[in-house]
Amino acid sequence: MRVLVAYATKYGATAGIAERIGETLGRTGLEVDVRPVAEAEPAGYDAFVVGSAAYAGHWRKEARKFVKHHHDELDTHPVWLFSSGPVGTETEDAKGRDVREASTPKDVAGLTEAVHARGHRTFFGKLDPDALKGPEGLVTKLPAGKKMLPSGDFRDWDDIEHWAEAIGKELQPA
Questions:
Q1: 163 secondary structure, DSSP code
Q2: What are the pLDDT digits (tens) for 55-107?
Q3: Which of 60, 67, 101, 154 has the largest count of CB atoms under 10 Å?
């Protein structure tokens, strides 16, 4: 079974998550290609995992366009979606909500429904203030910005691998 893992990233953290998902799916015996959405073509694949970095509560534009443009192909195959975005070590926000659930991008519900995705997962991301450009970089230099957007790599590789392993098991022939 051929699986396409397609992703949209701005600074590379989501690409790392996509690569780990691809590696993990490959270990379950699936044939996997990992591609940025700009280079991904769904023809010939049996299943899809599509992910995007989340900024300001939304998936990156190119990821949304990929799902919408390839809706007909994706909708007839198993699809999973993932997002990366929240940073920090806190798993609950001030209101007691799971940070990952509270950080789920606004457009995910519509995308999930559009392609009948079997699931969506939000993963913690990575923030390197030195890599940020423009206003994003300035925000992380301010005291309030440093508190809201702590720097570091917060990706939980075990969580990512367990999620991908579950997908791999689901895609195995009965």
A1: H
A2: 889 999 999 999 999 999 999 999 999 999 888 888 888 889 988 898 899 99
A3: 67
d(CA 1, CA 18): 18
Q: What is the dihedral of CA 99, 82, 117, 5, to 10 degrees?
A: -170
How many domains does the chain divide into?
1
pTM, 2 dp? 0.89
How many CB atoms neighbour CB 173 within 10 A?
A: 5
CATH number, domain with residue 55: 3.40.50.360
Distance, CA of 2 to chain centre: 19
Which ranges of the chain would DSSP assign to H, the alpha helix? 13-27, 61-69, 71-75, 99-102, 108-115, 134-139, 143-148, 157-171
Domain extent, residue 67, equals 2-171
Which residue in 4, 5, 17 sits closest to 126, CA to CA? 17
Q: Is the dihedral of CA 163, 166, 168, 171 positive or negative?
A: negative
